[in-house]
Write a structure and sequence with these properties.
Rossmann fold, 2 domains
Length: 362
């Protein structure tokens, strides 16, 4: 039984999407109390299942699974029966696919005028790229993710998580919650057009706009901060130094200035001064941090008010005392479950840890 204070405890969402963005959006809403019915192709199911049980579980834990072939009359009829009692449908096909199957927004609204259809696609339902194939790296490339320089010695490298997919899933979940509230207030559903490219563009646009005037000399961009960077340590590990406010530079100089007096160079005393000598500051800090192992730096910086962090490896992350204390990550049979990362003072439903087989619930 879901607790009465869960704001989505009587919301039903039909998830006909695959892989990451749509399923993750639905997973977020499930963690907030919604009942999510996963509609999968009979036999093979969500493509994520082919990537491994843990990958599928990551985005579909706690969802019921119904197997329907939407290319058949019987499958479509069964799908519309689900829509009659649902609040929202989430799909991730290319634009026009749902309509060609006879399951576009108009068809859904005919059986349930309050239904919300959320279409998560690569480039949106309109525009010159609407029909193009794409995955995370494509959206990042076209949204200017690498257009903004951020390091003195900058390099193009791929992110370690699917940034644009997660951006889109967050916007989709937020928009679904608002649209469902609206539909319940006025009885009228709507079609949400979530473009993964649009989502990450909303994150990258401001930085890229600033970078336009510095393309010939990227280091001059204000987005490049020489003291706010990753640095290698003597043992080949890395640390993160997040200095932004000048007080933290002062604290760094107080902590290390005796051992490394070059940090107290008057040219570097202010943010403006350091910005005028970016290469010198960054190279100096790199040389400083290469003099000790990461564990030594961790011990050294512990007493100081400096935004220092060790770059944790996968074997260290889940034993980190703060990660353990916050309990966002739970250990479950076969791996981990990641709970909703916001603490509600009135609580949220207990995590449902089952992972349904294809068609297990109908």
């Amino acid at each position: 039984m879901k607790p009465a204070w869960s704001c989505l405890n009587d919301v039903t969402i039909i998830d006909v999407s695959q892989l990451l963005p749509g399923p993750h959006a639905c997973s977020l809403l499930r963690q907030l109390g919604a009942d999510v019915i996963k509609v999968e192709q009979p036999g093979s199911g969500d493509t994520a299942r082919q990537l491994g049980a843990h990958v599928y579980a990551q985005f579909n834990r706690g969802k019921r699974s119904v197997a329907l072939d939407l290319k058949t009359d019987a499958g479509r009829a069964a799908f519309l029966d689900l829509v009659r009692d649902a609040d929202a449908v989430v799909e991730g096909f290319r634009p026009g696919v749902m309509a060609r199957m006879g399951l576009g927004f108009d068809a859904l609204a005919a059986v349930n005028p309050a239904i919300v259809l959320c279409s998560v696609s690569s480039f949106g339902q309109t525009g010159p790229y609407a029909s193009h194939a794409g995955h995370d790296l494509n959206y990042l490339a076209l949204a200017g993710y690498w257009a903004t320089p951020v390091q003195v010695h900058d390099a193009v490298s791929r992110p370690r998580v699917r940034v644009s997919d997660y951006a889109a899933s967050g916007y989709a979940a937020l928009s679904l919650a608002v649209a469902i509230m609206s539909a319940r207030a006025n009885g009228q559903g709507q079609h949400l057009d979530v473009s993964i490219h649009d989502a990450v563009l909303s994150w990258t646009a401001h930085g890229a706009w600033t970078a336009r005037t510095h393309e010939a000399s990227p280091q001059a961009s204000p987005t490049v901060m020489p003291e706010n960077d990753l640095f290698e340590t003597r043992d080949g590990r890395h640390l993160a130094m997040g200095i932004l406010e000048n007080k933290f530079w002062d604290n760094l100089c107080a902590a290390l200035g005796d051992a490394f007096p070059a940090l107290r160079d008057p040219r570097f005393a202010t943010r403006a001064g350091r910005s005028g000598h970016k290469v010198a500051v960054n190279d100096l800090m790199a040389a400083v941090f290469r003099t000790r192992d990461l564990a030594e730096w961790v011990d050294f910086f512990a007493p100081f008010d400096i935004p220092f962090s060790p770059v944790l490896g996968a074997g260290e992350l889940f034993d980190d005392p703060h990660v353990r204390a916050r309990e966002v990550v739970r250990r479950v049979e076969g791996g981990i479950a990641v709970d909703f990362p916001v603490k509600f003072s009135l609580g949220l439903p207990e995590g449902e840890d089952f992972v349904a087989g294809v068609g297990e619930h109908g």
